[in-house]
Amino acid sequence: MKEFAVSDEHELESRLIGTGVERLALLGKHADVLMQGYSRDEVPLEALSDSALRRLLAARIVWRPDDQGGVKLAPRVRELIAEMLADETRRQVNADVGETLELVRTLVQSYREAQSQGEYWRQEQQLLRLRQAVDDLNGRFADAIDSLWQRLNSDFGFVSRLTDKIRENERAQKQIVRLLDGLQLIDFDELIELVGGDGTLRKLLISQLQRQISQHYTSLREVQSRLTELMARFRQQQSRSRLISGMAAFLREHPNFVPGNYARRSDVPDLINQAVPLIAAAAPALDHEPDIRVLTDLVHQLPTPLHKPQTVAAARPAEAEEQSLVAARQQALKQDVESFYLTVIDHPDPPGISALAYLQESDMEWGEEIWLFQVIAEYQGLPRNEQKAFELHQLESRASRFNDLRLIHDVTLQLANSA
Amino acid sequence: MIEHGPLLERLLAGEFVCAVSDERAFRRLEDDEVREQIDTYLRPLNRRLATNAEGSVYFLAWRQLNDEAREQLSRQLGEVLHSLMPMLEWLQLMQEALGHDALVAPGDVLKPAELSARCEDNQSLREQLERLAGDSFFGSQSEQLDAQMKQVFKRLREHGYLLQPHADRQVYLVTGKIDYLVDLVRLIRDEENLPVDDESPQTQESLL
What we know:
heterodimer; A: mainly alpha; 3 domains; three-stranded antiparallel sheet; two-stranded antiparallel ribbon; 5 strands; B: mainly alpha; Arc Repressor Mutant, subunit A; 2 domains; 6 strands; globular; disordered C terminus; MksE (chain B); DUF3375 domain-containing protein (chain A)
């Protein structure tokens, strides 16, 4: 009798496996159509033969909610696909702890019965189903927590609008509360009583489950606090955006709006108290003995200019930046002065040539003051070694007895080595 | 105090220091002890370290508000108010051009070329930019969209709202000074009791 029951159960088992393989294959065979049903409301029937549809309905992969309506994916299949795709828009969080606990209680009772009757095979089967029930429970929590982290880490990237993100965040928080409520249902005192002295059950239902549940609990608390933080950030972003658009709209409506002068109040708001910039300037100082050496070193370290000394044609003082006409006159003046210098080189005899005399003898029309200024400027603009080749004598006098201002009446230029 | 020298100099020069503009300096400023040291140093200069409500930017405030300081603050407030409308419009333009429903925030990366391209394709954005760039705060004389965008970004960089990490690359980072501006808007709203609402309608949702 017992033998018969065992072989009966074996037969049932192999029939289940056979049907399962057949029906799982349906998922693959009709993957296209099923995925269309996943992304739309209904499963498109055009591509399905009548027999294929019948098989899908029999396997409860699809169902017909009402006689008139179309065919839809079964909720479990939709969940399976969402889970496989980690599709956070459709993924569900459902830990169903109450039902699992009920199942565990039943299985433990059958297990004990089988044990007491010495039905080892049945005992093994019950233990297997018990392990699966615990694994399922554990897996559902792990999946739910994974889904929550995914959503959190992507900043709810699967929805684009802030208001949607806020709603999704609220939904996730409610899920956490449900999951935590579910964990609360697991009463280890009850389980300890249930397993009694059985070592295998004890290991499975007490030590293993307890460790896993406490891990889930920690994760859920963590994800909860992160979600709350993220929610605060979403709300802050939303509030900033509203504030700015509201204020802009207000100012557009009231272009002459002027707020009070908060700086004149007895209690100035902290936010507008912003001190005037202060530049911490410093200059080299020579009043500190050790610094002098440092500064001297620094001066020695100054790089020598890489560019060549400026040529006479580019002398600074005559190079006033003015309009082109003025610049052209300036250039003409410079050229005339250069001719004067060349004349001096051609006539090296002392006492040199008076600049004013040269001007008067020529037919040039420069003013005396401008002419003298340019001759002096040219001399000062010469590179030092070239300057040494000339001697410039200034004929000058004091402005008055009481004024030490020197007035230059004329300058004489001669070659230095001819003196 | 020596190690805070460069930071002090920047603060004294009127800079806003945030996690974007100088992460290391900002982290140091988050330390109570460092802030106290700096405050002690600033005391004879009649200045103290100040921050906004979220503590996301640091700047220097007057310690004692004498007449001179009040005078300067009034002038400064006037300047800020002058820039308020163009700044708000810029924030809205960025939000729209980027297609975001949140304002630009510290650390966001902005590329003028990309933004120009988006304005190019959209008449309304194009007009908004034109109006904005021509405002005396931004002061663009150009009729070219690219040049207008460039000028706007240049001015924002000068005012410390943006940071350009590489001088030769047109990529900008939004600084914490944006937070300061938003806080200032909120202050004006509160002080003047303006009918500007920043609460989300979630209270209604929860009532339902």
